[in-house]
C-alpha cells in the first residue's frame, strides 16, 4: 500500500477513536441515572420480597413494611398487599428454602439430626423425614442412577 493510503486509514482510525472517547461519556451522562438503592423498583422488588419472606417474626416483617410505607417507598395499598402476601406464602416459602438447604447439605448425620428435631417438635411427620432422607441419599450417592434403581426396586418389593 502506498503511504497516502496508510495515512488516510490512520487518520480515519484516529478520528473514530476520538469520537468514541467523547461519545461514551456523553451518552452515559444523558442516560437515566441508576435509582437510589432506597427506591423500590421492578428490578429490586423481587429480592426485597424474598428477603421479607425469610423473616420469621410476623410483627418484625410488618414493621419493615410499615417503615417502607412511612419512608414513601411504597403506598398504603402496596403495604397491605405485601402484608397479605407475607401471611399467605411465608410458611410455604420457608419450608422450600429449608428443604433446599437440607438437600444441598453434605453431611447426612447433620441432616438426620435436624429432621429428628423437627419430628420431635411436631413440625414434620416421620414419613416426611424418611422421604427427605431418601431423596438426600439419592442426590448424594456416587451413582445417582443406581440409587434410583435400588430405591424403585425396594419400594416395589415392599408393596
How would the blueprint of this fold be written?
Blueprint: H1 3-30, H2 42-53, H3 58-70, H4 76-104, H5 108-120, H6 126-140, H7 144-158
Helix pairs in contact: 3-4, 4-6, 5-6, 6-7
If you had to describe this structure to a student in words, what would you say it looks like?
By secondary structure, this protein is mostly helical. The protein is built from 7 helices and no strands. Helix 4 packs across helix 6. The longest helix has 29 residues, at 76-104. The chain starts with a helix and ends with a helix.
Characteristic terms for this protein:
79% helix; mainly alpha; 159 residues; 0% strand
Specify the biggest β-sheet. none
Tell me the structural class: mainly alpha
Q: What oligomeric assembly is this protein in?
A: single chain
Globular, elongated, flat, extended or rod-shaped: what is the shape? elongated
Q: Give the rounded overall mean pLDDT.
A: 74
Name the helicity range.
over 70%
So how many helices?
Answer: 7
Quantity of strands, as a count:
0
Poorly predicted segments: 144-159
In whole angstroms, the N-to-C terminal distance is: 85 Å
Beta content: under 5%
Supply Rg.
Answer: 29 Å
Taken in chain order, the helices and strands follow as HHHHHHH
